[in-house]
Amino acid sequence: MDAPLEKIADPTLAEMGKNLKEAMKMLEDSQRRTEEENGKKLLSGDIPGPLQGSGQDMVSILQLVQNLMHGDEDEEPQSTRIQNIGEQGHIALLGHSLGAYISTLDKEKLRKLTTRILSDTTLWLCRIFRYENGCAYFHEEEREGLAKICRLAIHSRYEDFVVDGFNVLYNKTPVIYLSAAARPGLGQYLCNQLGLPFPCLCRVPCNTMFGSQHQMDVAFLEKLIKDDIERGKLPLLLVANAGTAAVGHTDKIGRLKELCEQYGIWLHVKGVNLATLALGYVSSSVLAATKCDSMTLTPGPWLGLPAVPAVTLYKHDDPALTLVAGLTSNKPTDKLRALPLWLSLQYLGLDGIVERIKHACQLSQRLQESLKKVNHVKILVEDELSSPVVVFRFFQELPGSDPGLNAIPAPNTALSAVSQERHSCDALNRWLGEQLKQLVPASGLTVMDLEVEGTCVRFSPLTTAAVLGTRGEDVDQLVACIQSQLPVLTCTLQLREEFKQEVMGTAGLLYVDDPNWPGIGVVRYEHANDDKSSLKSDPEGEKIHAGLLKKLNELESDLTFKMGPEYKSMKSCIYIGMASDDIDVSELVETIAVTAREIEENSRLLENMTEVVRKGIQEAQVQLQKANEERLLEEGVLRQIPVVGSVLNWFSPVQASQKGRTFNLTAGSLESTEHTYVYKVQGSGVTPPQTPSGARTKQRLPGQKPFKRSLRGSDAVSETSSVSHIEDLEKIEHLSGGQDASEANSPERHPGVPTPPEAEQTGALQDRAQRLEDDCPQMRKPRSTDLRFTQHVNSHL
């Protein structure tokens, strides 16, 4: 286009062509930039925010990680356990980063290095935990090792499994035996990983007559094995416990090993007590685990090592089967799983490993010895000398729970009483465990529900001490906290039945049996419109209970009150918390009933007030209209004409009284305003009588909080009160003597004379003496002062 422009001789046309070309170029460039920006916007709109742009710096990324870990500053801090990561923890974390770096080496160097790491770690673990000539499989999930062992057992017992697959299992179904005290969900996990149906699992019950109730019943297991063989099944594998997941009890592994050798069953052992194999002294039951076919260890929690894999040690001579089962791998990256543990074991050394495990066992023994001296605490311990797990619970034998109940011919009543006491203790133990976890977070306590014993508290330092840094001082603090909470537990448990009887005997209140509430009890107020058969929420009842909760909290008592839905319905209730002292239950229940009744009556008054006011206004309008008609008849029609009426009123004024109506909200009636205009004072009307309160008027001592029992028995009166009482009576006697001398000038004989201050003081002292004698009837003595005082009062009367 430039050439034609140059040939144009007219400079004007040439300039126009040049300007047009520049304008078109500017428009095209602008359109092109717009399209590119729109394309970038469309592209960036599909990309998440952190990935947009040219990336972020490391500080921003770490700040984001910190916010995700600990939460934002605006959020409330949560009381979570923070792992105590020491130098050994940093070594373990370093292993993960170092493993990523090692994986970049060339294949030959990587193969030699990973083989060395795997062989060293396997040898060290086998020597430390007394498992000679074993192989090791490192895995992240604790149950994964057992699943691989089950696969190895299937390949070992079914020679044609590789060729025929599950057709072999169909002809002879394998059976895996698990203890009833095993970890929940373990059997389902194994079936899902192996592709086996649930009938392949066999649940072995624990002892019911002899031995621990958390140990596998060996005799019953043998019977189950024989029955399965007769049915054409193949007993494949038995999972034994060296420290159950709940209470840390150990099965009779020696006897189980003999049984497995007899029937050709693979024996796998797992449990926290396997950590004691590293100590110098090991109980015989745990030491028998060294003869099993495989075992699973969790050195991470035992030694306080974060992100360290679990280890399954096993014995097998066929490398091909272990490779098929997945226990060994040719990939160097799989062997690098042992690197964090390889570094940590070298850092700790044998002395450091043994010291940590020994310290955890000593903490258990320390707590166990201290709890033996505490009343109302039951300890569930299998072996007092070497148990690394302590499980305890609060208990109290009430007067109704007597062994002689079995002889009474009313078993249903006895069983219901025992069941009710069991539920009450479970709720209290759940509350105790939560309180101890908050007071001593370094203890690492857990609350669990056992089938036979109920709710218990478990202290397992082998799994928590190294992580949380638990010390002996923490155990002493834990025992002190337990002792401080025992009076609250015993007092609450004793008052529960009394509270139930008081509520059931009070009209308008309904006792709600909530087995999960640890306090004194739960009560619900039944208002007039309450539908007892309905389980839905009640707005009117919720409003009454909300007001009742506010009134109860305003009393500033030692009890805690909260409102929530009923245990079996959506209706609102009042939950009464733990009692730290002797509570007057009758006063508490009566206060709840009277306060709720007053709230209901007040709410009804407010609801009816609108209707009453509306009717009153209508009645007032009718009466005022009637009064206007009477005024017209009285004054005449001429006075209503504007000009004529003014002239007539000037010549002959009308003396008409101003009439109006006032509505008395208190009395609910219409009254005339004539009294107001005549006397220039607004009358108060009829004063209604005070609403009688049904609450018991109890006089409290200074500083005494509501619902507290006071002066119980003759020993509850202090010596100071008795001395003050005698001094008051002597002062009254002295004043009465002075009044006898001036009886002639008494106000009774001279009306209009003001009462002297001595007489007022005497009356006040009489009232005080009467109150003291009413509160302390056991202090009243037949003294001459009392007789003279009585004669003096009678003479005045």
TrEMBL record:
Keywords noted in UniProt: Decarboxylase, Lyase, Pyridoxal phosphate
Domain PDXDC1/PDXD2 second: 387-493
Record keyword Disulfide bond present: no
Compositional bias per record (Basic and acidic residues), positions renumbered to this chain: 27-40, 725-734, 768-786
Residue stretches of biased makeup (Polar residues): 684-696, 787-797
Cofactor section: pyridoxal 5'-phosphate
Domain PDXDC1-like third: 499-604
InterPro entries, A to Z: GrpII_AminoAcid_Decarb (IPR050477), PDXDC1-like_2nd (IPR055103), PDXDC1-like_3rd (IPR055102), PyrdxlP-dep_de-COase (IPR002129), PyrdxlP-dep_Trfase (IPR015424), PyrdxlP-dep_Trfase_major (IPR015421)
Pfam families cross-referenced by the UniProt entry: PDXDC1-like_cen (PF22930), PDXDC1-like_cen2 (PF22937), Pyridoxal_deC (PF00282)
GO molecular function: carboxy-lyase activity; pyridoxal phosphate binding
The keyword Lyase belongs to this UniProt entry's keyword annotation: yes
Chain residue ranges for the region called Disordered: 27-51, 683-797
GO biological process annotation, one example: carboxylic acid metabolic process
Family classification: Belongs to the group II decarboxylase family.
Protein name from the UniProt record: Pyridoxal-dependent decarboxylase domain-containing protein 1
Highest classification ranks of the organism: Eukaryota, Metazoa, Chordata, Craniata, Vertebrata
